[in-house]
Amino acid sequence: MVKLLSGLGLLVGAVLNATLVTSAPDEAVLPVLLIPGYASTQLHAWRSERCSGLGHDVAVGDRVWVNLAHLIGQQECWLKCMSLRVEDQADISCKLRAGEGISSIAELAPGLLTGPMSIVWRNVIETLTGHFDLGPHQLMVASYDWRLPPSKLQERDHFFYTLQQKIEDAVVQNQSQGIVVLAHSLGNNVFRYFLEWLQRQLHTPDAYQTWLDSHIASYFAVGSPFLGSSESIEALTSGSSVTLPLSKESLRQLQVTFGSTQWMLPFPRSPDDPKANEVLVTVRPLTNTAY
Questions:
Q1: Which residues, 6 or more positions from 200, have their beta carbon under 8 angstroms from its beta carbon?
Q2: CATH number of the CATH domain containing 91
Q3: Is residue 72, in this structure, part of any structural domain at all?
Q4: Domain total in the chain
Q5: Is-contact 15 216, C-beta < 8 A?
Q6: pLDDT single digits (tens) 130-166
Q7: Domain span holding position 140
Q8: pLDDT tens digits, one per residue of 229-266
Q9: Tell me, what's the pLDDT at 129?
Q10: CB within 8 A of 49, min separation 6: which ones?
């Protein structure tokens, strides 16, 4: 269903096997933090939405990204649920929020038929819990609403504050020398922005460096758009090539409402950039006229 994400598990699993297994057998395994990428976390409804079709209403707790029943049966309602208000990135209808825990990133659309086609992090999670024997307190997920620009992640969800607390708690609970951060795609931009945000919170370079030395043991960047991503240009101009039963025009109109799309454009962004949240593109629906 999402071709760009289907091979991620095998790729990251290979990276982990090639790096972490070099530790001595009797050495304690460090906690791992997974930061998923663009479109790689389930989004759930926290406000109900009435749809026109029978049996396709969106209820609180329903998975919207990705729910093929809603998408196929009530496409207009689904698009409204997924869209954000361009001006301020506010919810339009369903009030979607990121799912929590490993289940929110293992598969986007769990199910007998849809599950195998929507695997994202499942293979990585199985490697970490099986081969490295990580438990619930050692394997963490920094799930986030991947539609939002960085400032809104903090303003609306207090995401970076929560992430700081999660990392600090993991180090204390596991009495470890820090954690291993494994980020994919947009997740790398999220982590880099977090470090910029943290540096401003801690005020002095020495305090920031001390925090890093105590809490971050390793950082693995997988598929990172450090120089930007051409796919974000495609999303803004013609619609992303995500394999969903939607027209490219519908995908384009949806994706230009996401502030995160311009976060991956090939030019630098930082917390101090005054243009980071400016409206970049607006789209008017096409009107077909018959002659």
A1: 271
A2: 3.40.50
A3: yes
A4: 1
A5: no
A6: 988 999 999 999 999 999 998 899 999 999 999 999 9
A7: 32-264
A8: 877 877 777 776 567 888 888 888 898 899 998 888 87
A9: 94
A10: 57, 58, 77, 80, 81, 93, 94
